Amino acid sequence: xxxxxxxxxxxxxxxxxxxxxxxxxxxxxxxxxxxxxxxxxxxxxxxxxxxxxxxxxxxxxxxxxxxxxxxxxxxxxxxxxxxxxxxxxxxxxxxxxxxxxxxxxxxxxxxxxxxxxxxxxxxxxxxxxxxxxxxxxxxxxxxxxxxxxxxxxxxxxxxxxxxxxxxxxxxxxxxxxxxxxxxxxxxxxxxxxxxxxxxxxxxxxxxxxxxxxxxxxxxxxxxxxxxxxxxxxxxxxxxxxxxxxxxxxxxxxxxxxxxxxxxxxxxxxxxxxxxxxxxxxxxxxxxxxxxxxxxxxxxxxxxxxxxxxxxxxxxxxxxxxxxxxxxxxxxxxxxxxxxxxxxxxxxxxxxxxxxxxxxxxxxxxxxxxxxxxxxxxxxxxxxxxxxxxxxxxxxxxxxxxxxxxxxxxxxxxxxxxxxxxxxxxxxxxxxxxxxxxxxxxxxxxxxxxxxxxxxxxxxxxxxxxxxxxxxxxxxxxxxxxxxxxxxxxxxxxxxxxxxxxxxxxxxxxxxxxxxxxxxxxxxxxxxxxxxxxxxxxxxxxxxxxxxxxxxxxxxxxxxxxxxxxxxxxxxxxxxxxxxxxxx
Length: 583
Ligand code: FAD
Ligand code: NAP
Fold this sequence. Notes:
Elements (H helix, E strand, L loop, with lengths): L18 E7 L3 H12 L4 E4 L8 H4 L20 H6 L9 H14 L6 E2 L4 E7 L4 E6 L4 E9 L22 E3 L14 E5 L3 H13 L2 E6 L5 E3 L7 H9 L1 H9 L19 H14 L15 H18 L3 H7 L11 E3 L11 E5 L5 E4 L3 E4 L2 E4 L2 E4 L8 H4 L2 E3 L6 H4 L18 E3 L12 H22 L4 E3 L1 H16 L29 H13 L5 E3 L3 E2 L24 H6 L5
Parallel strand pairs: 1-2, 1-6, 2-3, 4-17, 6-18, 7-16, 8-9, 8-16, 9-12, 10-11
Antiparallel strand pairs: 4-5, 5-6, 13-14, 14-15, 19-20, 20-21
The site of NADP nicotinamide-adenine-dinucleotide phosphate (NAP) has 27 residues, from helix 5.
């Protein structure tokens, strides 16, 4: 079965009227695992997916150089030891085609395809208060009813296309990294413009530069990036890693980030300068996101952060030969404040004679023209433009669906001033509607596949329990949701990550309220909270009939989520006061 094939004709309006236990929206890793768990519990379920195949992120983001930035041995499902043992990753950070092949392998291995309706976008979901069911409508005319509606729509799945003036005048193609053509793009001999310098840009720029005759990058904010030092994984390495795979998975679950790496909890500010330089150099040589684990206080203390920022700036200046370009490439903001990038030869690419960097921080892109782009009165001519402008993160995919809950209130109305959820799993006023890695959960601050698995297992346990006790609906209380939203916000303020403009806070999209959306208190702390909620009979939720959830019998969560926190994350006074290991 090819990556994009549809296993069978999707159900069409003829099936209108079918009642399912659950409808899942999205067939990325979240939707796939959710379907697997629902099936295992004997629930009837269907998944609607806008794309033509499984894999979500890895189905859409086919730009050159796309690969994961969490090591593949950990950026993969952990629920099946057999799957872990049989799948062989070829590289430390595997490329997009291999991750997509993995998603397809999972779909086939667990016979998921027949439960998924491809090429079908959910447009509306409406709660019927009398029957306590959801009516789900699609762009292909389907209208199906389900007890539960589970949004597995992705945190980074709604492309951000800035409204540049004159965009329709441009005669060449414009490719968004998040909707890359399946047949690929050959830039050989072309003049190419790239807008953006986030993770998608820094991965694609070095590869596009190998093909293009001329490459111009438009940078609004310089990016912090650490070398990946990507490499092939040898059979010997894989054998050794797999011999202890369950232990690696358990260690990963116990980390604030949900993946395992060397972490030095000592404060940078207590180390002597030479010692710090040595520590940073060693961490740089290991590369990748774990570079931020060189010291424990880097994301809490600005003075500590300045030391790693200075080190990284020196690296950029050493790599980039032209001093003016090097200075432009040196970020001024907090190191790791926006999502840290992981690259292969990004900075060195600017040493190539046909690669040029244009600063648009003070003089923004004015307009597209028929031939290219205009900045500060200068027209840059291109044959093709790459828009690496990111996503309407966390809430963008929800905004595209007309979701109506109790009393006719829409989710868009409720979330106008920022998303409001209980645990990032559910929202008051929207009974039986769930989110996988919704805002207010660790999601994008954790290794996402672990975050997904934990949510899916929690939901499966919850739905199983509801069936056992005959509950028709579940919904968070307003008070508990408010308290959680406040906690998510409070915790974020002690991290330097809350201080800059980024998609974590929604400010990459003009007009969005500034709210720190993911939960930054650490993955295991969050997991323990979810476990407690369940063990206490779904405290903070109301089950059907107005019975307080904690009047229900004791319920059990999936055992592998009994997660200890295995490291002390350094805590300045504010963090200690809140007793949270902020990541
Ligand atoms: P997605 O993979 O985004 O899937 C959501 C699916 O829902 C999509 O297929 C979409 O088409 C579908 N959908 C949305 N709305 C509708 C609708 N209304 N109707 C029907 N279908 C709909 N995370 C990491 O932890 N490590 C990494 O290395 C990493 N690398 C990344 C690289 C890129 C280029 C990007 C963009 C993200 C990366 N991420 C990474 C985050 C990544 O999104 C998650 O790791 C993970 O793949 C998310 O899976 P998901 O199923 O939750 O969402
Ligand atoms: P992004 O990080 O949001 O970067 C978008 C870039 O476009 C930024 O440089 C932004 O500048 C720029 N931009 C946006 N609008 C602009 C405008 N109007 N004019 C000029 N520049 C503009 O998006 P992304 O690179 O797609 O990455 C999003 C997230 O996906 C990542 O943070 C990561 O979590 C995930 N991802 C991971 C990998 C990986 O390595 N595995 C790869 C790709 C994506 P500003 O910074 O000034 O806003």
